[in-house]
Amino acid sequence: MKLVVDLPPSQGSGKILRNPAFDGFRGFAMLVLMAAHFGGKDLFPGAWLGINFFLVYSGFIIVYLMMVEQHTTGRIDVIRFYRRRAKRLLPAMFVLLLVLGFWALIMAEDYVRRGMKGDILATLGYVMNWRLILTSDDYFVQWGTPSLLRHAWTLSVEEQFYLIAPFIVIALFRWVQSRAIRVTIMMVLASISAIWAANIGVADANAQAHVYYGTDARAQAIFVGVAFAFLLGPDSKGRIPKYPRGPLMILISWAVVVFTVWAYTWVSPWDPWVFGKGGIMAMNLAMLPAIVILLDTPKNSLKTVFSFTPLVVLGLMTYGLYLWHWPIQIWLNLYAPDLQGWAFFFVGTILTCTVAFVSFRFMEVPIILRGMDAFTGSKKRSRWLIWSSFTLIIVLAFTVGRVPSLNSQFESGNAPPLVEGTEKYVAGDRHINVAVYGDSTALYLAKAFEPETYKDMTVVPLAVAGCDLMRLDIDFGPEKKGKPLADCLESREKLSANLKKNKTDVLVLNVGTLAPMLHVTPEGSLSIKDAAYEKYIVAELDDIREQALAGGVKQIQVSTLPCRDTDLDYAKENPEAAKVVADPTKMNNVLRKWAEANNSPVLELHQVLGCEEGYTRKINGVKLYSDSLHFSEYAAQMVWTWLAPTIRENFLASTK
Question: Has this prediction a pTM greater than 0.85?
């Protein structure tokens, strides 16, 4: 099992990790991930599993090489390890951050610039995953313009592992002599992480962000990789264990590959079995046979396939491909919105591969071999270049964060009122706990709540992106049905418990965006246009009400749905669906009727947005929607200038 090869003298001294088959496997995973992000997310909903593979691989290879170093030199040079990691990771990262910083400064809209400051600093500090958790970011939702550094969460998780990796190896080599006990310790840690991930769940936006981005939830993959390293790597005397590597192991490895390909095309992270029932842990463990065979010295069919040169090249350039593919796909969506389908995939892939190749060939490899001296010629100039780049990135981050006066008004919590004449909000004596339930419209509205402005109110988002009020299949046509999402069903099942946990006083329902569309019922496919459909809507609302009462909620308030542009991007191929979503008049009538029957105040969002006079793009000079469905960040803050006092007034009136 040869993991390292000496570089030819002409290329410099030192050693570099190189295994063509393993590089090819990494390249394949990266290709699937790019395909998903460049328009193929419906084809590869499980492409995110490639990230899990990278985490297992990081845990395995980093610790394996440390074990080799421990055996060869008798010690692990921690400082040298950190320098190698910095030399490998920071140059390309610095270039990315500089490019994004200058782009944001010159071309980005203000709402993008506002988030870029924190994103750049969090990425630079390798804590981007925790920033995304704090903002309840949803990796699988891309309305408007998501963070151009959202993908840096994986780099943060890995770097946090690198901080402790040397000490794990040193401690286990010093105090634990048994290979089996070392493996057991790491598997126990991995199991604790898996159990904790299941405990976090996927019932709401906060939980989904935590379980997907959290180091605590993702550590299971890394710890499994570390366990593999202790299982397969050299002990303190340099002895490599014998392991099965015959035809049966090769066959099992091919089964793992077939399963992986299937998972890429079928597995959603919010399926209950993935994080909730140990599915991700099982997939981590299933990688062991493939790792054994791919790293084995003799040739075999699996190694031959994944040693295919284009895949190997992609594997070698994985870091650059990963860094650049995400911002490139966002830029293509911004500046070439008509680029769709295969054209989008090919243009995005070619651009990404070109940038990654230039980065790898002309920056990463020279620095790996000769350090920054490859460009500066001396240690002194190298240090100057590193620290000046670091300083420039920080200056850019703070400069990008400076936005025009209108944005300053919003940032200070002084959003212009949605309804003219609304008085400045003054906090009352009674604190009110509010939960917002619904789909992504409700989710983003709740996330825009400013607690510093409304100090007598707490708002908890219990909404989940993509969730339909109806727990029925959506009828998109003769051969296409949209089934209820697993995380949506779980959020409904746990609604009562979540309401009780948050001691909710008021439950705000902002539901029904998708409900008016054609759904499959026992009576056939029905929509809001059919009189028989109303009872199914009422049944769902009644179910929510029962859960709210069981959760100790004192009052339910029902928001009407806003009108939207008739040119809905997501429904261009289904004009009937677009029409009922854009004009929710009938759905709102059903909501009002149900609210009256159940003594629930109605929050007339449809009315205060002027929808009775038609769709409006801007209010107070602020663009209402960031896309076809969701309020822009600033518009959502304006909505709260009306929504917060209305919720409070309705609740206090009910307590008299």
Answer: no
